[in-house]
Amino acid sequence: MLMIRFQRIGRTNDPAFRIAVLEKERAAQAGNIVEQLGTYNPKSKAFTLNEESTKAWIAKGAQPTDSIRNLLISKGIIEGKKVNVLPRKSPYKTEAVLAAEAKAAAEAKAAADAAKAAEEAAKAEAAAAKAAEELPTEAEVAAEAEPVAEEVPAEAA
Fold it and tell me: Residue 52 falls within a domain, yes or no?
């Protein structure tokens, strides 16, 4: 498969690139290119490109790298949406992973709500038990309610 890639040609700390068509499996070395399409200097933003030849190679099936694709889109040579070429610090999350995370969060929230309700019920039960301990028993209430009859000595009668 053919690729449209950058081929570095600048000195140390002064990068400049050729835009070349070459085999994907080959390194971007001078002897391996099929056709040179243009040049690009990122420091001075100098850009030259044979647009007809570039469009022809893309029509034949040559795939531009993401950096080349973004450059061609920004210059208006091809239409499309730019691609982020910088690596992400964390991997992309798929729809299934996002749905699973949302489900797990909902379950965790439901579990937390259930635990909170159980804790409140336990507190209410403890308060009821404490109140029940403070109340007098039925025997104590009955004993206080009945007046104790004093025994009258038999001699007084």
Answer: yes
- Backbone φ and ψ for 4, nearest 5 degrees, come out as -100, 115
| CATH number of the CATH domain containing 25 | 3.30.1320.10
32/92: higher pLDDT: 32
Element (H, E) at 40: strand 33-41
pTM for the whole structure: 0.54
In angstroms, the Cα distances linking 21 to 24, 37, 71 are: 9, 7, 15
Q: What is the DSSP letter of 25?
A: T
Give the amino acid at 13: N
Q: Which residue's structure tokens are 């209410």?
A: 124
Q: Residue 143's pLDDT is what?
A: 66
Write down the H helix ranges in the chain.
51-60, 66-74, 95-134, 138-145
pLDDT digits (tens, 9 = 90+) for 98-141: 888 899 999 999 999 999 999 998 888 888 887 777 766 666 66
Host domain of residue 42: 2-74
